Amino acid sequence: MARSLRTPLSASVKATVDKVAVTPNPLAPQILRTLRERILNWYYPPGRHLGEQVLCEEFSASRIPVREALRALAEQGLVDQVPNQGCYVKQPDVEGIHQLYDYRLALELFVIERLATLGIPEEFAKETRARWEPLLKITADAPVDGAELVRADEAFHLGFAQLLGNAYIIEALQDINERLRFVRLVVITTPHRVHATAGEHLAVLNAVTRKNPEAARKALRLNISAARNKVEIALAQALTNSHRRR
What we know:
The protein is mainly alpha-helical. It has helices at 11-22, 27-40, 52-59, 63-75, 94-118, 122-132, 146-164, 167-187, 191-209, 213-228, 231-244, and strands spanning 49-50, 79-82, 86-89. The chain contains 11 helices and 3 strands, in the order ααβααββααααααα. It has a 3-stranded antiparallel β-sheet. A hairpin with a 3-residue loop joins strand 2 (79-82) and strand 3. Helix 5 crosses helix 7.
């Protein structure tokens, strides 16, 4: 009987081969991060065509990592893949943004209620008050650094989730923060709104430290609704800015 020319692979060698076969191209994550940032910051307007050849030239990459990045963006709902045409930027409409706020509110209400029941570290409460109490005294003519305040606002809300320690909720809120950042940038633009935001944050914190879940939920709803009420304005401004960049 003729001997088979196929030699069985050892377990370790097979594992290495399998790993190489499924390891994504190292350029794909970099391309994905860059394109995702451009889309979420409205650098790319809705309907912007993301051509493979153009992206390959920009990133000095082959089509494989570019396609991996575009496929990931499609899975995240940030681009539409059209057969035989390529990918087009998919920005959220008013309804989609409100759905994101529904999702955010559901997650954060759960977090706040749990923490208001369990309690939070005194050091966290102290640091949070030190960050927001001075802003209660902001003057009407004070300059406002919108980007810095947006980061502080995101950190405030995410900080509670991190205290709870649920990795899935943390990841979801981080993604929501990135998708709704353009709304926050419109909302936190005046000393009046900064003052109001500081008061709302401190109301949430005080309710949690008093272990009053009902008051904490009420304060959180008030804070989130303040931004949600400006969705239409934020969307219109984002669209205007994105078209100006063309």
